[in-house]
């Protein structure tokens, strides 16, 4: 593949000084962005688990014809496709127009796998926009679970709603969306057996919720009965707001928007770790005992990853919060190389508890950058 004008080889030379300072302060090698020219793009097959192997192979071949490059399934991450040419656009693909595939980096797929969702789980996606992981989670909890998505931006929630309506199929029955601040969100999981019409009739509380509540992909989820549960969530995903410096696709878009605008995404930089810790603490509060929370960001900065996690663990002792391997019985380790977590400035016992967190690095993993930690709640607080 030919290099594009102003390609990755000269990308760092185009970065504004404010962004270069950010990279230096966070010990991020600008050379990581050289991977922009060699990384593939990734797609996810919607409702992959409901398709036969023949249907999947036919879909792969269709994408290959439209993309005019090598396309292959990603080993160990079910439903993901690797498209060799990163320049391929979704608009080129008939499979995207028909709703059979969505754009989603495989690193995000690994974060979903790490959560270990099962059919019937109630899952909270505390920072759900733009919705690709939300959709994947909804498929994983079918047919009787639920996914509750939260984002502070009504516009981003509208994007999630459109994605669910277009792609989810039967999974749209499992999603409710709230335009609220995830750091203070308090709605519990839907009442047990919310999906059972007989339970709804027996409760005598089948009227719809008042206006102003969440958008629900199912009329059953929108009933007062479903919303009145006091249950905590089985799984919580905190894919926290961050500076997006590890998302190469996010950084690369400034090639067209103007490199000078790259500095604007750092305006909230100093405040981001505090927000991330609040999101993590609130997700933990809403997680049931025995449940699992995954904390992730697409930043490469330790201040937004290991340091936030260390601050959280300092508040929650080892007999309450236990980091577990990202890969294990809940998901087999895919053949994607990962890096260990960095050692943050924290007491030795806290640093030792970080050993199972991992980093996906563009140069090592062949994916966008992502930090992932899987935390088990051993007891209530």
From TrEMBL:
Domain of life of the source: Eukaryota
Keywords for the protein's UniProt record, in alphabetical order: Methyltransferase, RNA-binding, S-adenosyl-L-methionine, Transferase
Residue ranges occupied by any SAM-dependent MTase RsmB/NOP-type domain in the UniProt entry: 32-378
InterPro entries linked: MeTrfase_RsmB-F_NOP2_cat, MeTrfase_RsmB-F_NOP2_dom, RCMT, RCMT_subfamily_9, SAM-dependent_MTases_sf
Active site positions, chain numbering: 298
Keyword S-adenosyl-L-methionine belongs to the record: yes
Residues annotated for S-adenosyl-L-methionine binding in this entry: 151, 181, 239
GO molecular function: RNA binding; RNA methyltransferase activity
Pfam families per the UniProt record, alphabetical: Methyltr_RsmB-F
Any one Gene Ontology BP term: RNA methylation
Family assignment from sequence similarity: Belongs to the class I-like SAM-binding methyltransferase superfamily. RsmB/NOP family.
Name the record gives this protein: SAM-dependent MTase RsmB/NOP-type domain-containing protein
Species: Coemansia javaensis
